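Practice problem 4.
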């Protein structure tokens, strides 16, 4: 009887050890490459973290500065996110403004969340340069090491749309409607408007933050340029979702 009980206990212990060390499901936090992972705790279908070896640095397509008032500029960088279905939070960046002699006349640093969209504009408003005139705008991501990218399931964030915009004759005001077709409300929605000339060159930008859009509701959007903007051929409005 004692031998039988001892055998059962040993069997149970061996079973526990086997299940713990040999059949335990893979995890994205165990410091090992297992399961469907393509790297240590990253990649595959099991982990949200995108492996650094396969992550793509965002591409800055262009960056420009626009006069708002004498000595005051708004700036925008047009960024492409080639990490399909992935986003990065808290990515530091900087705008540097130079005059025609390549002398630094303005600088602004910030932090941006890059949502899982292909096109992500990043803006800063009211950069003061004194009596200087900006001739060149440099935008850089300044994180070291590079940003951490995570897969973002599409159902985990809510997408909003906008109506066809209208504008005043001098483009001092651009208006549209932000529409939430989801049942749940959405908070702190960033919306960016960019104006382009006939050569498809950006000539003005403005940013609006909508604190709240109730479910199945809409909110007005208004972007203003007090001095007006001449030569506008088209406008673009981009809604950046929270994720």
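Answer key:
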């Amino acid at each position: 009887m004692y031998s039988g009980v001892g055998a059962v206990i040993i069997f149970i212990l061996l079973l526990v050890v086997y299940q713990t060390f040999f059949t335990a499901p893979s995890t994205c936090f165990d410091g090992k490459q297992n399961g469907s992972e393509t790297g240590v705790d990253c990649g595959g279908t099991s982990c949200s973290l995108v492996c650094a070896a396969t992550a793509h640095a965002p591409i800055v397509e262009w960056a420009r500065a626009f006069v708002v008032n004498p000595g005051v500029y708004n700036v925008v960088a047009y960024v492409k996110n080639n990490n399909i279905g992935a986003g990065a939070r808290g990515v530091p960046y900087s705008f540097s403004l130079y005059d025609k002699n390549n002398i630094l006349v303005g600088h602004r640093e910030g932090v941006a969340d890059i949502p899982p969209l292909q096109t992500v504009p990043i803006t800063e408003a009211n950069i003061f340069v004194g009596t200087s005139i900006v001739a060149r705008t440099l935008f850089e991501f300044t994180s070291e090491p590079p940003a951490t990218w995570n897969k973002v399931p599409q159902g985990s964030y809510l997408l909003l749309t906008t109506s066809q915009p209208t504008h005043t004759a001098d483009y001092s005001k651009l208006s549209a409607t932000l529409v939430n077709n989801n049942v749940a409300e959405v908070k702190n929605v960033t919306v960016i408007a960019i104006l382009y000339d006939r050569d498809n060159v950006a000539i003005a930008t403005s940013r609006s933050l909508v604190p709240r859009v109730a479910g199945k509701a809409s909110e007005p959007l208004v972007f203003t340029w007090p001095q007006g903007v001449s030569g506008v051929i088209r406008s673009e409005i981009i809604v950046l979702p929270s994720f």
